[in-house]
């Protein structure tokens, strides 16, 4: 192993020394003169998409600027130019090792140039290059969990969204997705490897993942000025034509459309594969395959719904598994029906009787019962409380109470079917119940105010971190209490799984 931990950097230095890094650092990172700052502003854009984002990198072997993780990654592997320089901070990244590498000589050059920049431009140092010293291991060892990098009351990552004329429905969904923990970690760590056409066109117009990923950079850039999203809205309109009108839309419909868009564009990435893994029976007795996709969207938002139909004459069971990304729960009318989320879920998973349909075994129309249950639940569980009916113009305004924490175990297939089906189903009383931890915590609630879906207003409650809640109402972001959240007339509820099983 080389001194700096990267053989590519060691080989580069043995050939070129530090001269190339010194040029990039002084002219395009620290900018030790006003002329250098002007040069950087004019020339530091990606050579492919012409964007000047916060993660722009320069090739250390040739004159090339590119977006980190996308165009720079392509250039590096095509030309075997593995070393790149972050133009914001001057850190060196090795594309072959997929990690930042630290060299004492390079760090000293960065430090010298930062001092020159401070003196020439009469500005303070916004950051200081990290240099290793012998006493630092002791500091790290003594750095306990009681030390917080971000304070408990920090609002970092919160940002309002401008209403572009009846776009509160979009703002509400975006606030939920940007504050979804696993999705946030995925985009901020730049796991997406875009495989869209590299023909020089703006990649954001062809890859929704790239455009969506920029949201996370904007939200976590430290800027608090409200953000406008015309490009994202335009992209959604172009790919979901039924939403391309300047009228109020159902926030649930938009959520489904955005998740589908993200999933479709994830499938274009070479970083995942799709493989059929399970076979199940449909209601007519035929077999079909459910494709198991391992893209980030399916990993976070997709579970499986199980439907078992039992003939009351011959007791034959027809089973169907369907992928699900949300569940819509009936509320009844304003005067009757369930009053709690648990009541709604129990109604949803209760057996439906009196169904008359053809039985493939009896070869005749017979009475059947139908049982729904959750075979598996997604990490992020979206629940729609159906306050709007397609056949009615009015809205169901009844209060449905929902908890901060919910255990979904009683609605899972294993415990339900062990009581309703015989041992031939595989869930008999003698079968061991291998049940995962299905406890969930509430982290977002979308609220609709108004009499009908075509008119009204949406806002979102977000659990920022720990137990701090905020009300995100377009450009206005204000603190909220848990009591405010639990007493609101929720329309979409978002729960996050507490314990994740890694497979």
TrEMBL record:
PANTHER family: UBIQUITIN CARBOXYL-TERMINAL HYDROLASE. Residues 159-498 form the USP domain. This is Putative ubiquitin carboxyl-terminal hydrolase nonstop. Belongs to the peptidase C19 family. It comes from the Eukaryota. GO terms for cellular component: cytosol; nucleus. It comes from Xenopsylla cheopis. Residues 4-120 form the UBP-type domain. Keywords: Hydrolase, Metal-binding, Zinc, Zinc-finger. PROSITE patterns: USP_2 (PS00973), USP_3 (PS50235), ZF_UBP (PS50271). GO terms for molecular function: cysteine-type deubiquitinase activity; zinc ion binding. GO terms for biological process: protein deubiquitination.
């Amino acid at each position: 192993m080389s001194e700096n931990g990267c053989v590519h950097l060691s080989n580069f230095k043995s050939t070129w020394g530090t001269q190339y890094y010194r040029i990039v650092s002084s002219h395009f990172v620290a900018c030790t003169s006003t002329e250098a700052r002007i040069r950087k502003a004019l020339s530091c854009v990606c050579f492919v998409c012409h964007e000047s984002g916060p993660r722009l990198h320069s090739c250390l072997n040739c004159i090339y600027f590119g977006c980190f993780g996308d165009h720079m990654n392509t250039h590096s592997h095509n030309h075997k130019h593995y070393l790149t320089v972050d133009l914001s901070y001057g850190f060196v990244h090795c594309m072959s090792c997929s990690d930042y590498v630290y060299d004492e000589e390079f760090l000293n050059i960065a430090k010298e140039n930062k001092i020159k920049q401070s003196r020439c431009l009469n500005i303070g140092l916004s950051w200081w290059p990290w240099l290793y010293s012998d006493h630092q291991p002791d500091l790290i060892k003594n750095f306990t969990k009681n030390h917080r990098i971000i304070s408990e009351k920090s609002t970092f990552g919160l940002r309002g969204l401008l209403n572009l004329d009846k776009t509160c429905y979009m703002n509400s969904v975006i606030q939920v997705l940007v504050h979804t923990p696993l999705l946030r970690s995925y985009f901020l760590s730049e796991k997406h490897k875009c495989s869209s056409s590299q023909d020089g066109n703006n990649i954001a117009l062809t890859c929704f993942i790239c455009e969506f990923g920029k949201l996370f950079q904007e939200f976590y850039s430290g800027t608090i000025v409200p953000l406008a999203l015309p490009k994202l809205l335009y992209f959604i309109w172009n790919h979901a034509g039924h939403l391309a009108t300047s009228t109020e839309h159902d926030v649930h419909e938009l959520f489904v459309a955005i998740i589908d868009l993200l999933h479709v564009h994830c499938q274009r990435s070479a970083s995942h594969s799709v493989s059929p893994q399970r076979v199940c029976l449909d209601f007519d007795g035929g077999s079909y395959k459910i494709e198991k996709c391992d893209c980030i969207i399916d990993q976070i938002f997709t579970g499986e719904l199980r439907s078992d139909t039992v003939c009351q004459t011959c007791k034959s069971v027809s089973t169907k598994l369907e992928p699900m990304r949300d569940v819509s729960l009936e509320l009844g009318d304003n005067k009757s029906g369930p009053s709690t989320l648990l009541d709604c879920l129990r109604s949803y998973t209760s057996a439906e009787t009196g169904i008359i349909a053809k039985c493939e075994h009896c070869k005749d129309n017979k009475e059947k019962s139908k049982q729904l249950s959750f075979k598996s639940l997604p990490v992020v569980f979206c629940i729609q409380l159906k306050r709007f009916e397609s056949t009615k113009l009015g809205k169901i305004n009844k209060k449905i109470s929902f908890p901060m924490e919910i255990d979904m175990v009683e609605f899972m297939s294993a415990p339900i079917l062990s009581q309703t089906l015989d041992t031939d189903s595989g869930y008999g009383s003698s079968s061991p119940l291998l049940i995962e931890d299905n406890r969930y915590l509430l982290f977002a609630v979308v609220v609709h105010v108004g009499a009908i879906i075509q008119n009204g207003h949406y806002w979102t409650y977000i659990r920022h971190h720990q137990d701090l809640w905020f009300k995100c109402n377009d450009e206005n972001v204000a603190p909220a209490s848990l009591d405010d959240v639990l007493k609101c007339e929720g329309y979409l509820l978002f729960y996050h799984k507490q314990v994740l099983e890694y497979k």
